[in-house]
UniProtKB/TrEMBL annotation:
Name used for this protein in its record: SUSD2 protein
Keywords (A to Z) from UniProt: Disulfide bond, Membrane, Sushi, Transmembrane, Transmembrane helix
Ranges for domain Sushi: 692-747
Domain VWFD, residue spans: 415-608
CC per GO annotation: membrane
Organism: Nothocercus nigrocapillus
Gene name per UniProt: Susd2
Length: 747
């Protein structure tokens, strides 16, 4: 009954699963073999030292750490008896299993998981900083010369002296074939035996030999007792960057001519590659849509309205989003940028426009090979080429030819359904109802992608602590196809907990996680977003002791949903459909609705929830999935003499959900969070309304145009240059039909 080699398994007499601790069913040696580590995450570039917190090794143990059963790195036991491992260079992001050997690699009985993170998403303190990065990336172009310097946290490396190495990234083999491979390789050592003071300055010289042909790379700082380019040793990496500073004399003598030649060579290569533009998702038409469609689009960290809109690559933009999922065949990415009026900016009108990506910046599962390497594939196809054509030379038209903005003519917003308060439901088709069952229910399931979202409701409490005759949402669990299972719940001390395959997830180091079949994100104020690979999105936030849940489904789910959120088909008449496909009228009374809700109780065999406390086991696992003895208040009584009623009317105004919740829980706070949740849902639906786009219009030759908004109701004006006269329409208006009025003008 040992957890040696068995972490995550349920044995016949005891458990090696994460839930065993709260259930007190662990095997005696669970803590010895199932490892807890700190820190638990770091850059995919590797070289980070982490400590094994729960197992003591004797100092004579010869440690080896092995990741994914094949990548071995060195380990060591510190003077305090704590074991340490060094994380490896990986070509993927997400949770990676590792094992530890104490007998120099004969057996690996200890195991745990390491979270590999996109290099741009790790905290700045983990990387060495290129001081004045622009100077590094423009070094050798006019008016850029002198010294370059970098800084790092010297205490991260336990050494008095360090080496600084230059590494280059390349992808070799035939594009989009099985022999296409990604390689980070050591090039040369820039500085040897430099004191580890946390700062270094030098005057760059062109790299020797053929190293200067690599123009995209990274710096690595290691203790100087390791040999050059030795893999997976303690290290601090810089951010990846354009290596202008080490390019050869040919670049320094005429940077613009060198970059122009590179740009033209890239242009020729692009012509031969498959066209990925046809399979990427269209952009949302407005900033409001882009920020509301959280299942398919996420803020681009390079241009974020919530961080002051610092949009270096997109002048004129206030916010950009990226499509979360890479395109199906070519793993390409989409980016969409918007100006202060909320209108999409197109490259056809402005250099600040959004550009799609041959390589998705965040990479895409299963990673490992081009074009799916997180961050670096994107740099190679979409970023360094931008330096060639747009930054180091004046040939941006070549770049924009291959990376034009997508407009929004094919964009279809998702549908939203929400549950909040003592559960009030708004279905995908917009029907409102209240169902206050006590138990675990299917909110939505779909035969299209086997998406399941289940909710647990528990009895609400009055402010004095006694139980009220209503329930509220206390946990939500979800899965699609064979993805990881995510559960969001209130813990017993009313903190929000997120579980990944039954294990509590810690967001203290990373707010974004690439998981199996989904991405997971948590904001500072604990709004949890789950983005499934189908484009379905689930958003959950705590609000007044209950959870508020919103599910967003793309149009392809039409006629493919059932559960408490109804049948998504644009028709509210069939919202109350039972499992056996019978329906009750939309005018059903609360008791009939109660039967409809009870019909959607989940069963233990299909439940996605984690039962890791005695309370949950007794009440929800061994207890009824729908507590038939619990009868809620269907019609709360408004007593004019009740002092609460006056405050309630002031707070709730005409919101029926808010009034209901104040009366049944005797709490204005609960009523207020219900009112806010209801309001949030209405805003979301408003922001997701369809918008008609007529598509981009060009200016006439020998003339210009005024206006860059191509949505329904907007007008574009045309003016001819001096000495030319206009034929055709001087104003064209985008009509509801999606067509422009008038005729194409010419000068």
């Amino acid at each position: 009954d040992s957890c040696s080699h068995q972490c995550g398994e349920l044995l016949s007499t005891c458990s090696c699963q994460v839930t065993c601790q709260s259930l007190r069913t662990c095997c005696p040696d669970y803590k010895e073999f199932c490892l807890h580590i700190s820190p638990h995450s770091g850059s995919l570039m590797g070289g980070k030292d982490f400590e094994i917190e729960n197992t003591a090794f004797n100092t004579s143990s010869r440690l080896k750490c092995r990741f994914k059963q094949k990548i071995e790195t060195s380990g060591y036991v510190a003077k305090d008896g704590k074991a340490h491992c060094i994380s490896p260079l990986l070509y993927e992001t997400g949770f990676v299993p590792f094992e530890v050997s104490a007998d120099d690699g004969l057996t690996f009985p200890y195991s745990g998981t390491w979270l590999s993170v996109h290099h741009s998403k790790v905290s700045d303190g983990e990387k060495s900083v290129l001081v004045n990065a622009t100077k590094w990336e423009y070094y050798g172009t006019p008016n850029t010369e002198g010294n370059l310097s970098l800084t790092w946290k010297h205490e991260v490396l336990p050494a008095t002296h360090i080496n600084i190495e230059v590494w280059g990234y390349e992808e070799i083999g035939k594009s989009y074939s099985d022999n296409w491979l990604a390689i980070w390789k050591y090039l040369y050592t820039l500085a040897r035996e430099a004191p580890n003071t946390g700062t270094f300055s030098f005057t760059p010289v062109p790299a020797k030999g053929n190293y200067s042909t690599l123009d995209f790379g990274i710096l690595r700082i290691t203790p100087s007792n390791y040999s050059d380019g030795q893999s997976n040793v303690p290290s601090v990496w810089s951010s990846e960057h354009a290596l202008a500073w080490h390019l050869g004399e040919d670049f320094r003598n005429d940077p613009s001519a060198w970059a122009t030649a590179k740009c033209l060579e890239w242009d020729r290569k692009e012509e031969k590659l498959p066209n990925f533009l046809e399979e990427i998702i269209d952009c949302p038409c407005t900033l409001a849509q882009a920020r509301a469609d959280t299942g398919r689009f996420h803020t681009d960290y390079g241009c974020d309205i919530e961080k002051g809109s610092v949009c270096t690559y997109h002048p004129g933009a206030v916010h950009c989003v990226r499509a979360i999922q890479a395109s199906p065949q070519y793993a390409a990415g989409q980016q969409c940028c918007y100006d202060a009026t909320g209108t999409q900016i197109l490259t056809q009108d402005s250099t600040g426009g959004s550009t799609p990506d041959r390589g998705h910046d965040w990479g895409s599962p299963p990673f490992m090979k081009p074009p799916r390497i997180p961050g670096f594939s994107h740099w190679l196809y979409d970023v360094i080429s931008f330096y060639y054509c747009c930054l180091w030379s004046d040939n941006c038209q070549f770049y924009m030819k291959h990376r034009p903005s997508s407009d929004c003519r094919k964009y279809r917003p998702p549908r939203a359904a929400s549950a909040f308060g003592d559960p009030h439901f708004v279905t995908f088709d917009g029907l409102n109802f209240t169902f206050k069952g006590h138990g675990e229910y299917t909110f939505v399931e779909s035969d299209l992608t086997f998406l399941r979202v289940q909710g647990r409701t528990q009895q609400a409490r009055f402010p004095n602590g006694s139980e009220a005759q209503v329930t509220g949402l206390s946990a939500v669990a979800m899965q699609e196809n064979n993805s990881d299972v995510i559960e969001v719940r209130y813990s017993e001390d009313l903190n929000i907990e997120v579980l990944l395959n039954q294990m509590v997830v810690n967001f203290s180091e990373q707010s974004w996680m690439d998981l199996k079949g989904l991405f997971l994100h948590s904001t500072v104020d604990q709004t949890i977003t789950v983005m499934f690979s189908s484009g379905a999105g689930v958003e959950i936030r705590g609000s007044g002791g209950f959870l508020m849940l919103t599910v967003l489904l793309p149009e392809k789910f039409m006629n493919h949903t059932q559960g408490l959120f109804g049948v998504m088909n644009g028709n509210i008449e069939d919202e109350y459909t039972f499992k056996n496909k019978t329906t009750v009228s939309v005018h059903a009374n609360p008791q009939q609705l109660f039967e409809f809700g009870a019909d959607w109780a989940v069963e233990n065999g299909t439940s996605l929830f984690t039962y890791d406390t005695e309370f949950l086991l007794n009440n929800f696992f061994f207890g009824e999935k729908h507590k038939s003895s619990f009868l809620p208040v269907f019609f709360p009584y408004e007593d004019p003499a009740d002092p609460l009623v006056k405050d309630m009317i002031l707070l709730c105004d005409s919101d029926p959900f808010c009034r209901f919740d104040v009366l049944t829980t005797r709490s204005l706070q609960v009523g207020n969070s219900t009112k806010l949740s209801h309001q949030n849902h209405k805003w979301l639906v408003e922001n997701l309304k369809s918008v008609i786009s007529c598509g981009w219009l060009d200016h006439p030759a020998n003339g210009r145009k005024e206006g860059t908004n191509y949505l329904s109701g907007s007008a574009i004006h045309f003016i001819c240059n001096q000495g030319y006269e206009l034929t055709g329409s001087k104003e064209r208006i985008c009509q509801e039909t999606g067509a422009w009025s008038g005729e194409t003008p010419s000068c």
